[in-house]
Amino acid sequence: MQKAVKEEAIRRLRTARGHLDHVISQVEAEKYCTDILQQSLAVQSALKAVDHIILKGHLEEHVSEAMKGKHKDKAIEEVMEVFDIVRK
Fold first, then answer.
1. Which of 43, 55, 57, 76 could lock 19 by a disulfide, CB 3.0 to 4.6 Å apart?
2. CA distance 50 to 12
């Protein structure tokens, strides 16, 4: 994993963890449901951003090289598997 990708992913994961900790405390305190949902959506958004960063880094670092060589079919299959997971 590229250093910049790793650093950005960790930064965003820590942000997501902070949001998640806040959701937990809101639920424990029985805060207003829509406030909890709003914070929960922030967690989900932060995690989606991490997925995007990691996938982009993977495509740039690994898949682009594999597409040039003998592992082209494997690289395509791997990317398609990720898209299948996302669509579920």
1. 43
2. 6
Domains in the chain: ranges and CATH: 3-87 (1.20.58.1000)
- Terminal-to-terminal C-alpha distance of the chain: 26
Amino acid at 77: E
Amino acid at 52: H
From the list 5, 36, 6, the residue with the least C-alpha distance to 20 is 36
DSSP three-state, residue 71? coil
Q: What is the DSSP string of 40-68?
A: HHHHHHHHHHHHHHHHHHHIIIIIHHHHH
The pTM of this model reads 0.78
CB 6 within 8 A of CB 54: no
Between helices 33-58 and 3-28, what is the axis angle to 10°?
A: 170
